[in-house]
Write a structure and sequence with these properties.
alpha/beta; Rossmann fold; 2 domains; 7-stranded parallel β-sheet; 6-stranded parallel β-sheet
Amino acid sequence: MPSILICNESITSGGLGTYTLTLADGLRKRGWLIHFLVTNGPNEYYADMGKISFRCHDLTSLPLSYKKLKVAVDIVNDTSPDILLLNHCSLLHHSLPCISAEIKPVAILHNDIEGIYNVARRYYKRIFRWIAPSRALAKNFRPYVAKNIRNRIKVIQHGVNADLFSFRGRDTSLTSPRISFVGNLDMNKGSDMLPLILEPVTQRFPDIEITITGKGPLRFLLEKRLNEKKIKAAFTGYVTAAQVAKILRDTEILLLPSRVEGFGLIIVEAMLCGAVPVVSHLPGITDDIIEDGVTGALVESGKVEGFADVIVSLLKDPEKLVLMSEAARESAVQRYSAERMLDAYEVLFDEDDDRERMPRRGTIGWIREMISEVINNGIDRQWLVNRAKEIWK
């Protein structure tokens, strides 16, 4: 039976949590033995994890220290999985020199941010493969690793559970059109632009219903700005994946003015549920998912007037909105199934191990390799200083 240890800093709401659970459940159904390692919490999806048959190791209660890294290393080596899947899990990247050379570490690139790339590059000679969910991430990550191993970067788009995210008809009691935002309430997702985008929309369509789903640092500021502009919006806070699907099924338009995305899983989820996505044009990311004017609308990132104009145009033309909804569903079903993603992952996991053979290190060997890593790559100097102090406490 093949086995995999999936490592996350947390299992929480949002695209990463949904992706993780979809992957774990899909591999379990294909006969994989699933283990989970969570290092930092919070873990809002523990209830969902309990429905899936795997063992979860939670290190959230341990303070960051060499002891915590040692515990993580022991879990990995004792579990001895075929695949160590790293979902932007910094602690586990630092543990790579200490794990068995027989284990294949696979790092997932989850966002187009330098911090993500800097974590994913750590001990890159020991990484078996990197998976980028979009062309842009694969391209942008290439300079972070040596030229002779860039062929280990593979593009596999995320898949979505079409049983959960599917169009089943809208709630017939809803008489007004609805716009929904789903995502973290922060600058990366562009939630700060929502009041400016929605103001001209609500002036033209005063009966429009607006739902904002998610949590984040801009929650209270966003509520204040919407109230100042007399825009009524329902804030749901954290909801389960099933509740997100219900919200999207009852939504005409998904509004997502992101400044940064790695893939945009919520875009595909919306398309499957029949919501037409109006999102930022992020080359190599969102334009790989959406055909502008056919399955959704792409707007120049940060262009508030552009978002407002597109939404007003769509709401003025309900027939076009219906046609785009149908085209979006058809495209998403054909291109973004979980089964297609799982097929591609299993093929990748089964590839021959072409890494340079590097021994498993003990404490002294790990320190030496960490120093060499910093000298060669010029990263995490402060991390080195802090960890050295903790080791010798």
